[in-house]
Design a protein that fits this description.
Elements: E1 2-5, H1 42-51, H2 55-80, H3 87-105, H4 109-115, H5 118-134, E2 136-150, E3 159-173, H6 178-186, E4 190-201, E5 207-216
Antiparallel strand pairs: 1-5, 2-3, 3-4, 4-5
Helix pairs in contact: 1-2, 3-4, 4-5
Length: 224
């Protein structure tokens, strides 16, 4: 299992999960708001190689594959060392987790600003504004936190926490009928997901979220 950086999604892995299992994620093109957040811009690199098929193209492709392998090994190392959370951190994080998810489902920018680090909040703000324009809400019914494990800490007092949770994940639209929204809810299963939450204590000793990284099976095509 390796984690993937995601641009958005305070709740769950991908939002609007539909009826597919956690391993497939049924996403419409309008809801693929993670696809532009990549650790390196693989599609653009590959596209450039295709349009400029020279002797250096093959070397570039090899370099891209090597970088991908390196990133996968680093992610695997991050997940290798897991420990229990100290009780104080566990209690604070559980509160943060549910508050962030609740604010996300309400498109509540005021609360997200309070609960997130400044840089990460700006990412979420762009997504939420898009939701507001489309008059939709990312609902997370039956959200349940299953387990928490602490990973190796990141730089600058960052704390990495492996979260296992489950929820019924779908979009509700304010400008569509109750029948449409009920069908969206009924087609979404309660699914389990894993994420790495990077958090920090601020100056007021409040825990804030600075990054959410979705964890997916370790396959060759899942680096975004």
């Amino acid at each position: 299992m390796v984690p993937l950086h995601v641009q958005a999604r305070a709740g769950g892995n991908y939002g609007g999960g539909g009826s597919d299992s956690t391993s497939t994620w049924n996403r419409s093109s309008s809801d693929e708001y993670y696809d532009d957040r990549r650790e390196f811009d693989r599609p653009r690199i590959i596209t450039g190689w295709r349009h400029n098929a020279t002797g250096g193209g093959f070397g570039l492709l090899v370099a891209v594959i090597a970088i991908k392998r390196l990133l996968q090994r680093r992610r695997q190392n991050l997940l290798a060392n897991q420990t229990d959370l100290p009780p104080t951190l566990a209690a604070a994080f559980e509160t943060l987790f549910y508050e962030v998810e609740a604010a996300w489902t309400r498109n509540d920018l005021t609360s997200l600003h309070r609960l997130m680090g400044p840089g990460y909040y700006q990412y979420q703000r762009c997504i939420i504004i898009g939701f507001m324009i489309q008059r939709k809400f990312n609902e997370l019914d039956s959200l349940h936190l299953i387990s928490l494990r602490q990973l190796d800490n990141g730089p600058g007092r960052a704390i990495n926490i492996l979260v296992t949770a489950q929820a019924r994940d779908y979009f509700r639209y304010a400008n569509k009928s109750a029948t449409f929204n009920q069908q969206a809810k009924d087609s979404a299963y309660i699914e389990r997901f894993q994420e790495i939450w990077t958090v920090k204590w601020d100056a007021q000793h409040q825990l804030r979220c600075h990054q959410i990284t979705a964890v997916q099976p370790d396959t060759d095509d899942n680096v975004r």
